[in-house]
Amino acid sequence: MPYGRPMIFRTIPILLALALPVSAAIAAPTKSAKAAKAPTPVVEAPITVDSLLAQSKDAATKGDTELAVRLAQAAIVQDPARTGSYVALGDVYASSNQPDYARSYYDAALDIDPADAVAKKALSDLNRDHPETTARNSK
Q1: Could you give the angle at which helices 49-61 and 83-95 cross, rounded to 10 degrees?
Q2: Which residues contact 81 (CB under 8 A, 6 or more apart)?
Q3: Nearest alpha carbon to residue 85 among 99, 62, 61, 69
Q4: What's domain 49-138's superfamily in CATH?
């Protein structure tokens, strides 16, 4: 009987070795099933101040002023020291015929950087196009 016991232990690993590839083949999905189940991951670009400002400009171009304002505000929140965000928000307000709001954001940009040429030009254009708000603000 001493020979029967080692024989059983040798048989079990051999049977397992034969059964594993069969069970793995049964459990493995086919290529078409795998493609149908696993969607391709979508890699989104990180949200940056530049992307927010680009989206804001796009929304303003499409006439969605509310979205354009919110995106420009988000850009200001993300980087409050960046004058371009204030100018962009001022541009949205200027294009939607709200010169008082536009002026306040151009002024905020100039408070951060008094030499900002873009903000100076935008404010100059606003003063030329809306002289009535310039006179009101100078009082």
Answers
A1: 10
A2: 112
A3: 69
A4: Tetratricopeptide repeat domain (1.25.40.10)
pLDDT score, position 46: 84
Query: Residue 97 in contact with residue 133, Cβ under 8 Å?
Result: no
User: What pLDDT is recorded for position 73?
Assistant: 96
Tell me, what DSSP letter sits at residue 48?
Answer: -
Region of 133 on the Ramachandran plot (φ > 0 left; ψ -120 to 50 alpha; else beta): alpha
> At what angle are helices 65-78 and 83-95 packed, to 10 degrees?
170
Predicted TM-score of the model (pTM):
0.65
Domain boundary assignment for the chain: 4-37, 49-138
Residue 25 scores a pLDDT above 60: no
The tens digit of pLDDT for each residue in 26-36 reads 555 555 555 55
The alpha-helical segments, DSSP class H, found in 79-116 are 83-95, 99-112
Cβ–Cβ < 8 Å for 69, 98: no
With tokens 């950087």, the residue in question is 113
Q: How far is CA 127 from the centre of its chain?
A: 34
